[in-house]
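Retro notes (design track)

What went well: tokenization of the new backbones is finally stable.
What didn't: we kept losing track of which sequence belonged to which structure.
Fix going forward: every design gets posted as structure first, then sequence, in one message. First example under the new rule, 276 residues:
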């Protein structure tokens, strides 16, 4: 690792070689240049290794790690443990970045070392093309719903202090990480501009599993709740308050799904699929 690098991208990749070139090009095109990028091949069976090798030869700021498949948390942990820079930027292999993301982020982080997590506005692309709406952050709100995407910038020392991502979680690992990272009052900053582009796929297996397997979905919440039970007791001393907050979220989701535009879109999408 070079001494001058300020931030390291960590890009887990499992059988996403068809998107990897596009993602890494947006890393290379950053107007702020003091970065490094670790590509983590999480046991892919496609040509991820060959694509990565091209980038290693093209630009020595790219590094490569190959490991047995262990899942997203395991891949992120393996890559971030190699980071020697002050900040870490987990970056998904199928997403894209605005060329000025690092320039703006580094300027802000250099001026305020109290910032624990830095984010920007997120634009969906692929099967959807709208701004991703996330809840406004407060730590109390974070305990009931995730307020950030996983691909947000944070300090390497935060990763070391937290102990990385919980590899027992098959999802929600980023939400669980943010709770641990911010529980002692660290600051969050959001850049008020679209700088991250999040790819939405036609079929998202995890979303489908949430829809079909309620027990799996609830088991994740239960795991996070029990893991951080002291924090939940502190911020929600009456469990009914926590449950009421959950009901408000459920009601919001219900209203969104009952919206005329949503229902019309869903019917048209179902009809289109039945004809093809």
């Amino acid at each position: 690792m070079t001494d001058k690098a300020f931030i390291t991208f960590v890009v887990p990749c499992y059988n996403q070689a068809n998107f990897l070139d596009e993602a890494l090009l947006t890393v290379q095109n950053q107007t702020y240049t003091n970065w490094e990028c670790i590509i983590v091949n999480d046991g892919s069976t496609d040509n991820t290794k060959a694509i990565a090798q091209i980038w290693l030869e093209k630009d020595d700021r790219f590094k490569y790690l190959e490991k047995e498949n262990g899942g997203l948390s395991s891949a992120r942990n393996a890559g971030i443990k190699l980071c020697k820079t002050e900040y870490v930027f987990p970056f998904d292999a199928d997403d894209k970045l605005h060329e000025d993301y690092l320039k703006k982020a580094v300027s802000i982080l250099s001026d305020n070392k109290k910032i624990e997590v830095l984010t920007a506005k997120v634009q969906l692309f692929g099967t959807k093309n709208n701004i991703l709406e996330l809840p406004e952050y407060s730590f109390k709100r974070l305990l009931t719903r995730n307020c950030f995407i996983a691909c947000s910038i944070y300090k390497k020392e935060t990763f070391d202090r937290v102990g990385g991502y919980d590899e027992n979680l098959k999802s929600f690992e980023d939400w669980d990480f943010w709770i641990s990272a911010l529980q002692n009052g660290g600051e969050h900053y959001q850049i008020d501009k679209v700088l991250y582009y999040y790819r939405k796929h036609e079929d998202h297996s995890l979303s489908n599993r949430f829809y079909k397997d309620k027990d799996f979905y609830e088991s994740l919440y239960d795991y996070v709740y029990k893991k951080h039970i002291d924090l939940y007791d502190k911020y929600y001393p009456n469990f009914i308050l926590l449950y009421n907050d959950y009901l408000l979220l459920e009601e919001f989701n219900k209203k969104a799904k009952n919206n005329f535009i949503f229902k019309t879109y869903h019917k048209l999408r179902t009809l289109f699929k039945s004809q093809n």
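Added context from the reviewer: The CA atoms of residues 13 and 171 lie 16 Å apart.
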